[in-house]
Amino acid sequence: MGEILRVRGGRPLEGTVRLPSAKNSVLPILAAAMLADGPVVVRNVPDLADVRASVAILRALGLTVRRRGPDLHLLPAAVPGWQLPEAPARTMRSSVFYLAPVLHRAHRVRMPLPGGCKLGPRPIDIHLDGLCRMGARAACEGDWLELRAPGRLRGIDYTLRLPSVGATETLVMAAALAQGDTVLRNAAREPEIQDLAEFLNRCGARIEGAGSPVIRVQGKAALHGARHQPIPDRIVAATVAAAVAGCGGSVTLLGTGQDPLGPVAGVLERAGCHTDHPAAESWRVQRQGSLRGVGLVRTGVWPGFSTDAAPVVAGGLLAAQGDTVLEDTVFEDRFACAEGFALLGGQVCRRGRVLAMHGPARLHGARVRAADLRGGAGLVVAALSAGGESVVEGAEYVRRGYADLAGLFRDLGGVIQSETQR
Ligand code: EPZ
Q1: Is the predicted pLDDT of residue 45 greater than 80, yes or no?
Q2: Which ligand 1 atom lies nearest to the CA of residue 169?
Q3: Residues of 264-300 as b/e, b for ≥16 C-beta within 10 angstroms?
């Protein structure tokens, strides 16, 4: 039994959307909450499948976790567990975030190798290499991983092999309670890393340089609790903006912060969208005229064009006049959604990391299947701009990163329903 999204496309989108807290902030922050000796409140946490999996892991590790309205309230474990529950841990990549906090709490941690979207090989060697240099010992039994750290983790001066977002977050969490100071070089710079550091600093940590390639952490003996409002979800913002590009119309995003889309905004403007800030903390995207291809767009680590935005922008530009070529430098298999784009009438050619689209293309309804979270969202975006009825199967992938994507687009005038497939 799975979930499908039934879409009748071809209508412009109009209205306002309040952005949820960023999934890729909330997930590491929920793990980092284990480092605090006191109560933690994470504000406005979206009801995502990956959040539910995180709550299941935290509860299995002994924490008290209660949802109070939009907020999650967490209390420390009296006796911290050290084995992650298999089912939720296997559903997402973010289970890797529990390595450092559980090591600090229980001096050992056992978990299945993390799951998550199949975007190509997703090793965790940098996470493990950094933790072992801090004093942990790692062992693998089949697809189970166990780390032990009899003593306290020690601060290190460490250069990451590549600026991995998750590995940077793991090592920031490990350094926050380590003995001594840590310097992380070639660190990832994504906004969500800055958000994690801000949360931990509110808990009494001493982290400087988050958002830059060099992060310095003074290890503390203990951290207290804190309340934190994560940053808005820039990939949800990109998803809505790409849908406006494809469908036409005018949508205002609320709670956006200064620059919610980074380089994505410039690409959509090249495609024919107009963007402005009608008020503080808001950002409007409109497309009334023709939709144009944007030539070559290469993704990259922040502050480059986000890999997660590539499939949704592809969905929005599928019918554009001219050529768009998207190359993902981060993941090998980012464009599994190319097959669905072709079924919807797009003129696409996918070769490995590169997705080439040519237009104009007359998009029509089709039955397509999501293979991952952002590819599924890209298929929804394309179906919204296609004439006729489409069905997107595998919509349970989409639920991992969007609480209710169908409801969000219905509120903007889209005709889209979520159904359970027998
Ligand atoms: C985070 O994944 C995000 N997930 C991803 O978003 C995002 O696509 C990715 O960063 C890149 O921005 C969360 O934050 C929960 P990486 P992560 O480690 O940490 C290689 C979404 O749709 N690598 O920066 O797994 C890896 O194979 C998700 O919201 C190693 O080789 O990404 C990949 O090629 C999808 N060894 C590259 O680095 C390691 O130890 C980037 O991965 C770690 C990573």
Answers
A1: yes
A2: 19
A3: bbebbeebbbebeeeeeebbbbbbeeebbbbeebebe
